[in-house]
Design brief:
Elements: H1 3-9, H2 18-38, H3 44-62, H4 69-76, H5 93-111, H6 115-128, H7 137-150, H8 155-168, H9 192-229, H10 238-247, H11 253-260, H12 264-276, E1 280-282, E2 292-294, H13 300-303, H14 342-345, H15 351-373, H16 379-384
Antiparallel strand pairs: 1-2
Helix pairs in contact: 2-9, 3-5, 5-15, 6-8, 7-8, 7-9, 9-10, 10-15, 11-12, 11-15
């Protein structure tokens, strides 16, 4: 390291910089709002699961490995990679497999690092808790993160240590993965006076996204619970299935069966019933290996093309041109309902959610191990390793 770069690394940016102060205020407010909303919230385990997966995906993207969030969710459920090739994104199955493997590796750093990884995280955490030139936890964490990377430190343990540092500094009571991943993208500046505000803005954006997700999850979950609760026996497993659908982006009947301790056939019946009630949507449009998401939280349905079916009255050749007079514009979406309060939340039991999340964590560990074994295999071998749901076929027959 040259004398000039050494002097730069030892001198944090001046606190009076307006851009730095604006970014700090933005991040502080966003983190405080998220902490207030998530403290003791019953859906916190579900939010942690979704945000950790999304954080791992964003971190992989910042490191040059792009993967669509719904491709990652489908990979977790064992959907064969050949089924994920029909996408507007030009990406082959091998690239999807590599990106999914890296994302799940980053997920492991955030959730359950092994012994060696834990030692590396503790080293970074000690560095983050070292010199504090500002006396402001967010600014000090950003400065020490820059210093760690400038001196050759690696990214995965830094990200895991940042999550813990926000907790030890009293900024977040839950280990939500705010790591400022976007600040490490290839188009970001590296000089500290520019990078530190970019990092704080990235943290603010992550906190805002997590809060928006929590609010939307809460609305969709309570509406779904109310839809399935009427007229059911107290032993019905449909409400617990709704809990799991709120917690994970996509779920298969196999995962649902393991999480709720039932047969795959019974899980298929519950999922089909939830689809009929418009509580859930099927996002894969396949005869087998079907995946489901909670209505309103599964945008893969818009990205995945449904099976091609002949339209009534249509012959061979190109489709008929629709006259302009018959072109009906979609109606605007109705306004979102008000956010539920604590009393509305207490009307439901949350006991099944924690057990379901443990089953989902087991699926992630299994998928991570499977992708690691397939690291030297081709896409065809990866397809053969898909788990899916061959025992849960749809009732649609080919026409």
């Amino acid at each position: 390291m040259s004398l000039a770069s050494s002097r730069r690394a030892d001198t944090p940016p001046h606190l009076g910089d307006p851009a730095l102060l604006a970014a700090l205020a933005l991040a502080s407010v966003a983190v405080a709002r998220l902490d207030a909303a998530t403290a003791l919230h019953p859906l916190l385990p579900a939010l942690l699961h979704r945000t950790r997966l999304d954080a791992a995906r964003r971190q992989a993207a910042a490191d040059g490995h792009l993967i669509d969030p719904w491709h990652l969710a489908a990979a977790l459920e064992g959907l064969p990679l050949r089924a994920m090739r029909d996408s507007e994104r030009i990406m082959d199955a091998g690239a999807i497999q590599d990106a999914a493997r890296l994302a799940l590796d980053y997920h492991g750093w955030l959730v359950a690092p092994d012994e060696d990884a834990e030692d590396a995280v503790l080293v970074v955490l000690a560095a983050l808790e070292g010199q504090r030139p500002y006396g402001v936890p967010l600014l000090d964490a950003a400065w020490r993160a820059w210093l760690w990377l400038e001196r050759g430190g690696t990214r995965p343990p830094l990200r895991a240590a940042l999550v813990r540092r926000l907790g030890t500094a009293g900024l977040l009571r839950a280990p939500l993965p705010l790591t400022g991943a976007a600040a490490l993208g290839p188009d970001q500046p590296w000089d500290p006076p520019l990078w530190i505000p970019a990092f704080l803005r990235a943290v603010a954006a992550e906190a805002g996204t997590a809060l928006d997700l929590l609010i939307e999850m809460e609305r969709r979950w309570l509406a779904a619970r109310a839809a399935v609760a009427a007229g059911r026996r107290s032993t019905s497993r449909a409400p617990a299935a709704v809990d799991l659908l709120a917690a994970v982006p996509l779920v298969s009947a196999t995962t649902l069966a393991v999480a709720l301790g039932m047969s795959v056939k019974a899980a298929c019946a519950i999922l089909d019933e939830l689809v009929r009630l418009e509580v859930a949507v099927e996002v894969t449009h396949r005869h087998s290996r079907r995946l489901f998401g909670l209505a309103g939280l599964a945008p893969l349905r818009q990205a995945a093309a449904p099976p091609r079916r002949p339209l009534p009255g249509r012959g061979r050749g190109r489709p008929r041109e629709v006259p302009a007079a018959l072109d009906v514009r979609p109606e605007p979406a109705p306004p979102a309902p008000p956010r539920p309060g604590p009393l509305e939340r207490r009307a439901f039991a949350y006991g099944d959610l924690e057990a379901a999340m443990q089953a989902v964590d087991a699926v992630i560990r299994k998928t991570r191990a499977g992708l690691a074994r397939l690291a030297g295999s081709g896409p065809a071998d990866a397809d053969a390793a898909g788990v899916g749901d061959p025992a849960c076929p749809t009732d649609r027959s080919p026409r």
